[in-house]
Write a structure and sequence with these properties.
Radius of gyration: 20 Å
Number of strands: 0
Number of domains: 1
Number of helices: 13
Structural class: mainly alpha
Shape: globular
Helix content: over 70%
Strand content: under 5%
Largest sheet: none
Distance between the termini: 25 Å
């Protein structure tokens, strides 16, 4: 009789994603490059300016919204749903991922906000900044044996796919600020990616093989990603962000678009980032001997 625990449907799905990781990488590249090189009218733009126009617009929208915040009370009145969703997302990472995962999500989110503030809609800054970020993450990826480093460079690559998710289904587009959605999606993706890396590093430190550690970490991220993404898109839909082209009074969001973006954000994490991150050299983080936690079991009387 086989006494081994049979894998559940979630584990089978995650293992399947690891098997098709090369397909995920190819699909991401094929879809991302044409969409990022295309402007809102559908014509191709030349050079790197068009390629990085989306994150520049996101940083500009975030800066405009941040400039209108004048204290804690103003922040709560203008973005109470986002604040509540953010706190809930971080709390879930602490509960399901552990203290280090929660701390990693907070630090990475603050770092992401810092990058958006530094960009401030300046197109002359975005190319050097992303170039430096990609170069530093690549160097760390090769030489530094840290779990967050193993996930950082794959995240940088997969982050170019995030604008494609926000720009899904333009025929039902009638909402407030696409750029603001993009900034929020990027922060959510970064926080959960770094939390995933910390959890995977913990399992590797316990001697779990690479594939098993990644699958275990992804399983722990199921609830934070599924529930957190739902809270995020609902909060964004309820938050009215004014833009020069659309004032607050006329801003509204199609709920069909909300559902599409929710599914897209979940797909980004589990179908693209998770399998693509497995190309990183996680195995070098594995401990030489596997630690097994022994739990005392009370005898049944």
């Amino acid at each position: 009789m086989d006494l081994r625990e049979k894998p559940g449907k979630v584990q089978k799905f995650l293992e399947l994603m690891l098997r098709f990781r090369l397909i995920a990488l190819v699909v991401m590249v094929v879809v991302t490059v044409p969409m990022l090189l295309m402007n809102v009218k559908g014509f191709l733009v030349s050079g790197w300016q068009g390629f990085f126009s989306v994150p520049v617009a996101a940083s500009e929208a975030f800066g405009m919204w941040l400039s209108g915040i004048q204290g804690v009370q103003s922040l709560w009145s203008s973005a109470q749903f986002l604040v509540a969703a953010g706190v809930a997302c971080v709390a879930m990472l602490f509960v399901f991922g552990g203290v280090r995962a929660g701390v990693a999500s907070i630090v990475s989110t603050l770092a992401g906000f810092g990058i958006l503030i530094l960009l401030d809609g300046d197109e002359s800054v975005v190319l050097p900044m992303f170039g430096i970020l990609a170069l530093v993450s690549l160097v760390l990826f090769i030489f530094v044996k840290k779990s967050v480093v193993c996930a950082l460079f794959p995240f940088v690559l997969c982050s170019f796919f995030i604008p494609c998710l926000v720009d899904l289904s333009p025929w039902i587009l009638s909402e407030n600020s696409i750029e603001f959605w993009l900034a929020a999606f990027a922060m959510f993706a970064l926080a959960n990616s770094m939390a995933f890396a910390v959890v995977a590093g913990k399992h590797l430190g316990a001697g779990v093989p690479q594939a098993g550690a990644l699958v275990k970490a992804a399983r722990q991220m199921v609830v934070p990603v599924l529930v957190g993404a739902l809270l995020l898109v609902v909060a964004l839909a309820e938050t009215r962000v004014a833009t020069p082209a659309m004032p607050v009074e006329t801003a509204h969001t199609s709920w069909l678009f909300v559902v599409v973006r929710y599914v897209a954000l979940v797909v980004w994490f589990f179908v693209f980032f998770f399998p693509i991150s497995s190309f990183a050299p996680w195995a070098r983080l594995r401990a030489g001997s596997r630690r097994v936690e022994m739990k005392d079991k009370k005898k049944k009387k």
